[in-house]
Amino acid sequence: MGQLDGKTAVITGGNSGIGLATAKRFAREGAHVFITGRRQEALDAALAEIGGEATAVRGDVADLADIDRLYAAVTEQGRRIDVLFANAGGGEFASLADVTEQHFDTTFNINVRGTLFTVQKALPLLNDGASVILTGSTAANSGGEAFGVYAASKAAVRSFSRTWANELRGRGIRVNTLVPGPIKTPGIAGLAPNEEEVKVLHGFFEQQVPLGRMGDPAEAAAAALFLASDQSSFVTGTELYVDGGLNQI
User: In sequence order, what are the beta bridge partners of 133?
Assistant: First the structure.
């Protein structure tokens, strides 16, 4: 018996990193998993890794029509949603002096607008008692240089989880924020311009994290499973940090 036997989970940004690791873990626990991503080849590769029952729907959460197509796919299979992991997100470095309209719009369209409408448009399909998980970031509280727009977008996500946990309590729907610290994902690597700088960035994070290393996506997926399952039945409106102590010590 898996912890998610017979359940349906939707994971945006499920083609790589934490999203893919979570999709694999949810599938092993018995869920049928729907994943999204912007690149079809990455989605195809992800499906091969996930195995079991899984469906991929190509789309960008910043495009509301793509979100509609995702939920149409869920409906076409006669399913409703037990777990929604609004995980898709991204960001780039830019100091206050260097922020452009495009940088701001791209970051907020994905992280804030995309998260909002991913959850809003799922409401008719969410079962009572469902679990909604949002992906936050330790950056929202750290004040790291040149990461202000990204940090602000993730602070907005954290605020959403509080409000939505309150608004959806009448349906028994729990809303929580998973807050990963430095995890070895393509997203982290993408912050550096080349492989040598990726090593430097990883080394920096390893020095900052009290456990002395970066996290593995599977470790974040284990925390997501806790929030998705009945093991967290009395947990809502909170943040679960998976950061090796970065923001705790």
Answer: 85, 176
Q: How far apart are CA 73 and CA 133, in angstroms?
A: 20
Task: List residues bridging with 240 in a β-sheet.
Answer: 178
Q: Kindly report the CATH number that applies to the domain delimited by 8-183+218-241.
A: 3.40.50.720
Whose CA is closest to 51, among 76, 67, 27, 29? 27
Q: What's the mean pLDDT in 41-62?
A: 95
**Strands across the sheet containing 174-180:** 54-58, 32-37, 8-11, 81-86, 126-135, 174-180, 239-242
pLDDT-above-70 percentage for the chain: 100
Strand, helix or coil for residue 179: strand
Rounded Cα–Cα distance for residues 220 and 17 (Å): 10
Q: What is the distance between the alpha carbons of residues 138 and 151, in angstroms, rounded to a whole number?
A: 8
CB 57 within 8 A of CB 80: no
Helix 101-108 vs helix 148-167: crossing angle, to nearest 10: 30
**Hey, which residues are catalytic here?**
150
Tokens 């040598």, residue? 196
- Please tell me the distance from the alpha carbon of residue 96 to that of residue 228, in angstroms, as a whole number: 37
Residue 244, C-beta contacts closer than 8 angstroms, at least 6 positions apart: 181, 182, 209, 210, 211, 212, 213, 214, 215
pLDDT digits (tens, 9 = 90+) for 53-105: 899 999 999 999 999 999 999 999 999 999 999 999 999 999 999 999 999 99
